[in-house]
């Protein structure tokens, strides 16, 4: 089974030595995403709610680039800069998903560039729309 790189279709500036997503069969592994301005790669600082929703929208775009939807996400790992903001982050996170929410782990972590949140995800995409010739 081959691995396919999934790029964020709107991200102009690359910010590190990693793939935004890697598709293996019907499983998509999305790298940690944060609240970045996609045109510049700069952090878009905001409230925990704003940073959470922006970060989740980046994940959604990567999942959609592979042919999935937000409902295909089965697991998220969330790193919060300040665990005391858990309730506010949780409310924003919960408002983003419809239906069955993904399994989730949330931990407090030291994050770079003053961001409040980083999220990675795993999605099971039943009909990926990416083929090796598309890359």
Protein described:
Strand 2 (21-24) and strand 3 form a beta hairpin. Helix 1 (48-65) runs parallel beside helix 2 (86-96). The protein has a single domain (3-129), classed as RutC-like (60s Ribosomal Protein L30, Chain: A). Strands 1-2-3-6-4-5 form a six-stranded mixed beta sheet, with helices on one face. It contains two helices and six strands, in the order E-E-E-H-E-H-E-E. Helix content is 21%, strand content 27%.
In this structure, how is the largest beta sheet organized?
Answer: 6 strands, mixed
Helix content: 10-25%
Which residues form runs of ≥5 with pLDDT under 50?
Answer: none
Beta content: 25-35%
> What is the global morphology?
globular
Structural class, please? alpha+beta
**Count of individual helical segments:** 2
Strand order of the largest sheet: 1-2-3-6-4-5
How many structural units, i.e. domains? 1
User: Could you report the average pLDDT, rounded to the nearest whole number?
Assistant: 90
Classified in CATH, the superfamily is: RutC-like
- Work out the number of β strands: 6
As a whole number of angstroms, the C-alpha radius of gyration is 14 Å
Q: Distance between the terminal alpha carbons, to the nearest Å? A: 16 Å
Instruction: List the helices and strands in order.
Output: EEEHEHEE
Query: Can you tell me the CATH topology?
Result: 60s Ribosomal Protein L30, Chain: A
Question: What order do the helices and strands come in, and which of them pair?
Answer:
Blueprint: E1 3-6, E2 21-24, E3 27-33, H1 48-65, E4 73-80, H2 86-96, E5 103-108, E6 117-124
Parallel strand pairs: 4-5
Antiparallel strand pairs: 1-2, 2-3, 3-6, 4-6
Helix pairs in contact: 1-2
């Amino acid at each position: 089974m081959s691995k396919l790189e999934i790029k964020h279709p709107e991200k102009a500036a690359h910010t590190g030595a990693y793939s935004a997503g890697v598709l293996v069969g019907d499983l998509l592994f999305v790298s940690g995403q944060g609240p970045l301005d996609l045109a510049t790669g700069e952090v878009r600082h905001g409230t925990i709610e704003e940073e959470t929703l922006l970060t989740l929208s980046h994940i959604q775009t990567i999942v959609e680039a592979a042919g999935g939807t937000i409902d295909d996400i089965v697991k998220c790992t969330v790193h919060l800069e300040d665990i005391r903001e858990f309730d506010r982050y949780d409310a924003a996170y919960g408002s983003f998903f419809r239906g069955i929410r993904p399994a989730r782990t949330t931990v407090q972590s030291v994050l770079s560039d003053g961001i409040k949140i980083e999220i990675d995800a795993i999605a099971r995409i039943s009909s990926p729309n990416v083929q090796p010739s598309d890359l």
